[in-house]
Every structure is written in structure tokens, then in C-alpha cells.
Amino acid sequence: MNKIGIDAGGSLVKLAYYDHGKIHxxxxxxxxxxxxxxxxxxxxxxxxxxxxxxKANSFTKLPSFNCQLVNEFQAxxxxxxxxxxxxxxxxxxxxxxxxxxxxSIFHVTHNSFxxxxxxxxxxxxxxxxxxxxxxxxxxxxxxTMASNGDSRKSDLLVRDIYAPEEPPIYRDLTAANxxxxxxxxxxxEHDHLASVMRVIGETILLLATQVATAKQIKPxxxxxxxxxxxxxxxxxxxxxxxxxxxxxxxxxxxxxxxAIGALLENE
Length: 267
Prior knowledge:
The protein has 267 residues and is of the alpha/beta class. It has ten helices and twelve strands. The protein has a five-stranded mixed β-sheet. A five-stranded mixed β-sheet has the order 8-7-6-11-12, sandwiched between helices. Strands 9-10 form a two-stranded antiparallel ribbon.
């Protein structure tokens, strides 16, 4: 490996590298930079590092590696476009939603991109609220618990407000996220985490679909570490398709779009 792309984020450090002509990926915790450096020193001590992300400067200060900074927004849009082509999805224009610790939303064309807006809602929200609910501190634990929970036991739905009458809008829409958490004593931590996942998913989807509507685009591509192995969040992103007329797209290596885009710098 003579070249490695690194996306050093607030929660995770993601790597992308070539092996026998194919791109492979690896992930470390941002709290364990020493493990990243050990891996680099053992497997590829002479590699050039193309680094992006909020913690990129922690790598550029290392004297033992040849590092080059890569613009974070260019990296993630380049990486997403590469992964779309790899999957044989030919979208000339799409909305890109990058969900890491927070969220950025881009309008991407075949030769340009624009960061339209962002939100503080994202993986950091899940980690913070997940800890407050469970006193645990593990992303995969939270995603598993959310998948096994029922958000309807914690969320206040439109039908809850209008019962026993039939509401004027779709009865299963969320009227208030976590709006029954203080009322339903039978709701579990799993149910509350399922509701938190809907807070995150519904908020991000509302922003993304507003951008898609303004740009008159249907494909919305979701990438970032928060989407990976998170079926509860993906379910939110797909379930409003008929109501809001958009096309959700998920990429196999979408969590590493930034690292892959950094790897592709100068190519």
C-alpha cells in the first residue's frame, strides 16, 4: 500500500486503501489513534496519507508520515460518486446526505457539488440521548435496542391525539417524538431508543426532502457511519417514499465515502 485515504471524524477514523486493485476499508475509534498509527506503521510505514475530516490535523502533525490534507466536502462527494458508479447506479444529479456525528446535505451533479445545509442531529445525538436513556455508551448496542423496540410506545402519534375520531391526516404520523415517554410506564429503553432513532431519521429526512424538492431531484443518497448496520434508521428513510416522492439510495461502503474520496485525490 503506497497510498491510504483517511477520514478522521469526531467519533471514528475510517481508512480506505488499495489491495490487488480493489478498495478495502477499515475503521478505528477516534479515541484510539495509537491503534491507527500502529496499524499504519506495521502494514504501510512508507505510504502517503491523504487525510480529511475534522480531526485531520492530528495526522498532519505526525513527522513519520507523508500527509496531505483533502477538503472534507470534496472527499465525501467524490467518494459517494465513485461508490454509485461501482454499484452501476447512474445518477447524474442527486442529493447526498452524510450522517456522521452531525449531518451535511449536498446537491451533487456530475461535475460539481454544493453543500446546501447541515444539522446538529446525527450520530452524536444517538450517542448522547442513548447514554441518557440507558447509561450505556455503545453505538451498536443502541442500534440493536432500537431495532427491537417499538417507537409507537414512546412517540405521540396523530391517532393518539384524535382518538376515538378519525384524524384529517395519516393517523400513524408522529405528532411528537418521545411525546408519550413520560406517560407510558410500560415503554422500555428499547422503545425509547426506537423513538430516538425516529427523531434523527425524521428530522434528517425532512431536511433532505426539502432540498430535493427545491432542486427537483428524486434520488437521495445516504452515507456516513451512523447509517451503517442501523436498520431502524434505514427504515425511517424508506417508509415515506410514497408520501414525499423521493428515491432513497444506500451504499455498501457508504460509511467510508470520505476516506474513499480522500484515497481518490489526484486520480
